[in-house]
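pipeline stage [seq->struct] | target=diguanylate cyclase | organism=Thiobacter aerophilum | residues=307
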Amino acid sequence: MSPPSVADLARATLLALAERQLPATPENYARVYAEMAGKPATASQQPLSHASSNIVAMVRQLVDRIIHRTASLSEELQARNADIRGTVDELGSAEEKELILRLAQAITEKADLIHLSVVQTQNELAATRSTLERMGCELSETRQSLLEDALTGAQNRRGMDALLMREVARVRRHGGRLTVAMIDIDHFKEVNDRFGHDAGDALLAHIGMVARSVLRESDALVRYGGEEFLLILPDADIQGAGFVVDRLREMIARSPLLYDQHPIAITFSCGIACLAEGENGHSLVLRADRALYDAKRAGRNCTHIAN
């Protein structure tokens, strides 16, 4: 029995992931693919970079298979067409009725074989394309999940780094402004102590939902850590960022979290910083963070602007 093709292994891998309800991470792809190929490996043996390279190699093999199959089909069709032309030439010189019928039957059979080859190739290519599309969707979702905080739906620190790098580069190329606002939920520990950590988690998720409702489509919400969030506000100056923060403060005051029939009032402290000439994203965030601590030292539930 011939070994399974790369496309077969890829389809089996995707099916196994779905059946086992495993998240579509590069590590799981690499581990299950190795298992399907008869080379068991644990996830711990597959670092992210190695697992990702395995997925890239798998996609390349699938593409190579498409190229090889279409090239083989082209050669096969050329050979069968030449065969049919030869049979047609024989038919033109044939005089006996039985010979003519046999040659006509042979042409029909050869045409049927061509049709069968084309259909088989179409089916193979459709299956391979489906595999690639599904892998693309799964990997896209995986990439997004790696950049998001599972609790709040906000970007995580890894997502923040990518966003800031892109926005700083945009400002340097085209001009414009970039402002960030670091916010910290006031007395968050007291919420955990009084209502429990589930209430704290619910509060963080609530803040994330309310914050997204006041942000523009171009803005981004980052869970910076613990009860701290960062608002990334492209093309906003200090005044514009202050307006967004005030709007968020107003919306949170109007919609306290209702947990176990108990309304939990929420306030937050905030530090705002605008990108300076020659500054990088890391420095910008640090300045906003220092301004946040100035706001906390000033009594909380207020906003301070970075120098």
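stage status: PASS
auto-comment: The chain has two domains: 6-146, 157-305. The CA atoms of residues 219 and 233 lie 5 Å apart.
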